[in-house]
Structures are given as structure tokens and as C-alpha cells.
Amino acid sequence: MLTGTNKISNILLIYTGGTIGMIEDDQSGSYLPFSVESVLRFVPRLSELDVSLSVVSFDKPLDSAHVGLNEWLKIKNLVCDNYQDYDGFVILHGTDTMAFSASAVGFLLQGLNKPVIFTGSQLPISKVRSDAHENLVTAIEIAIAQKNGKPNVPEVAVFFDKNLYRAVRSTKDNAENFDAFSSPNYPVLATAGVNIKFNKAFITPFSEKRISPLMHIEKNVVILKLFPGIDDRFIKQNVSAPWVKGIVLETFGTGTVNLSVDSIEVLKTAINNGVLIYAVSQCNIGSVEIGKYKSSSVLKEIGVLSGSDITSEAALVKLMVVLGNYSDNKEIESLLISNWIGELTEV
Ligand code: ASP
Predict the structure, then answer these.
(1) Which pTM does this prediction carry?
(2) Alpha-carbon distance 221 to 247, whole Å?
(3) Which of 1, 15, 74, 183 could form a disulfide with 57 if both were Cys (CB 3.0 to 4.6 A apart)?
């Protein structure tokens, strides 16, 4: 861990990998994860911010394609183990799976009342045109922003390009532009221009609660995306696999499905055997409304739960976290259909 000079706010920077710190392999030209030192070397003026910055890095920085359940727990543990010593946390992470990781950390860190800001970049920080510098500096500024001694953003969020998004509402929707993320069903929490403007009405209010992190994640959860012509055998293989405990069902539009009578029976049997099926929409904007059309009402009849306007990323990790930490079926169902930490709009 590197420690900077003692100034106003203490921030812990957690480096997990991602393009931000990658270097180009001389032979193949591919980007490879490198070190946190390579990131900080390119932002020498960080020391001019009103912040005492400590840095901790994953031993082996990862392309976020390889970040999964163990790493989510590792990030959660790093935040919890250092919680009392810091005013906020900035997580440097690859963009490809950032929405999953940030959502998972959001659900795991129950009772959070400090900023945990994920960021990264589309180009390595070593590139002259890189977006890394702006993203890193602004993420730190957001993490230290306070009013009357209380943090402006006491929740897990993703800062990218000019916008701050609620973690459990964020999605990576652009692999080309610098504004790689969006939050299709929830307003941005802040916008960074000449000034950083916080959208207070939409940020989780500060409360004097104690952090009470959840410890487990259930890994036997899958996403099943429907498509025209989907074969009954494919549905059966996925839904009746004995190890599957939860399924995010990506339905069309507002929740319509093209399931045959046989496939409905497969889903019904799975639900009766304790598998949780959580319906989300394949559309970015809008919400599942089971029963709005005849071709979705069957989901209600067999006990599929509605995820309203939750993203697929947040739905997957919410199922994993709920199944990992709760055992009472009624409690699990109620958590899934309700708004827990701002991930869905209750109807
Ligand atoms: N493949 C990289 C990653 O997700 C992409 C990035 O960071 O932008 O780690």
C-alpha cells in the first residue's frame, strides 16, 4: 500500500485492472493488464488534490472479463476492512464487466454510508488521447465531495466520461465512445462539467447507519435470453439442470414470451422445485409488466417474479446475493420484487 501526504480527505484507491492500466504487448499489439504504478505515473498532479490517497492493488490485475464472484467479495472485503480509516473508496476496474461488479458490491455493502466510486477508461492511461485522466481525477473528486461533513454520494456508483450513475442502474452500452455507460431507467447522480453538479434528489440520502455487509454469493444462477425460434430442448437443458438455483429470464418488451406448452411446464416444475425465475426485459428502457399482454400473463400463473425495470446485470447479481444470504422463501421473493437499494422502480 502506498500512502500520500496527510490532507483533508482519506481515499482508498483499489486497483483491480482494466484498460486504464494496460500496456500494449510489443509482439501481438494486444492490451495486457499491468500495474497501478503505471496508472499513477501518468497522473503526477494527483498530489495537488485535497486528498490523502492510499493505494491497494490486486496482486494480479485483471481484464474485467476475468473478474467474478471471488473478486466481488475481495473488493467488498477491502472496503469493509478499511471502512473506518477512509472517507471514500475509488475502484479502478475494467469497463467490460464493471456494471456487474459495481452492482454486486452495491448489494453486498448493506448499510453503506460512504462513497464507493467505480471508474476505468476506454484507452490506457499511457495513450495521449486517453480518457483515463479525467475519469480518475473526477472519481476522486466525487469520492471526497462533502457538505456539512457528510458525503455527497453515500452509495456505490460508476463515474464515466461526464456522468455519475447509480451502480445498480448502470450498464455498459458503448464499446467505441468515451461515454461507455448509461443508466437507462434512472437519472444520473451527477454531471461533471466545469463544476460537478450533484443531482441530490436522486442520490441515496446519508444516514447514520452501520455497515452490515453480506458475506455470500450463490454462483448457481444463470441468464436465459429468449429469442424467436428458441428450441424447447435448449430451454429444458438450461432450466432443469439440477444445479441451477436461480434464472434471470430475459423476456421481450414488457415481459412477453414465446414459450411452448412443454417449456411452460418445464419452468413450472423448476419453480415448484424451488428454482427462482426473475423476469427482466431485453429492452434497455422500460419495465416488465407481467399480464399486460396475453403472452406474458402465463408467467404470473406459474410464479415467475417480476424484476420491473432492473438491468440484467443487477438482476443477476441480486439473485446471487439474495440466494447466497437468505433462506426463507417468502423473504427472498419479497426482496426480489421490491426495491432494495435503488435498483428497480416498484409498481
Ligand atoms: N477489456 C477491458 C476490461 O474490461 C476493457 C476496459 O477496461 O475498457 O478490463
Answers:
(1) 0.95
(2) 6
(3) 15
